[in-house]
Amino acid sequence: MKKWLAFTLFSFSALLMSCTSVGVDKYAGTTPEFDLFDYFSGELVAHGQFQSFSGQVRRRFVVDINGEVEGDTLTLTEDFVYDDGEEQTRVWTIKKQGDKFVGTASDVIGEAVGESSGYTFHWEYDIDLPYKDGTIKVHFDDWMYQQNSRYLLNRARVTKFGVQVGEVTIFFDKTPS
Description:
mainly beta, 10 strands, globular
């Protein structure tokens, strides 16, 4: 009976937390104004980690990123190197559609949809990540916060069936030309 009560309280807490999301409009007027295409155009490097739901760091990585803008399309090539030596490449195609951004990648299920306001960018998507001998579908609630023309912080809440399973923290550095 105690396990059932604990599970019910945990599930209710998770539901309440998912309903209290801050929207990008809360950041309107903040500076520096984040321009997704401008920031990710060219070469960048990022350092990040995945933490489990308990906060334990499970995996660290470095990402070399190259962004190319053509018209209303940003193509981002991300080359990951994980602390265990594994390498992975993800290529994003991101299009600006009015006030929204829509992105696709080979392991993203459907489309990532996002918007920007002030110094923030927020988008959400489902993705199939490598897991053991297969993949696991998880949801990313991704927030980026531009610090200045060079640095960007990224926090992503990772959920499965609406329950947080981890968090990704990434620090982007736009290589000076």
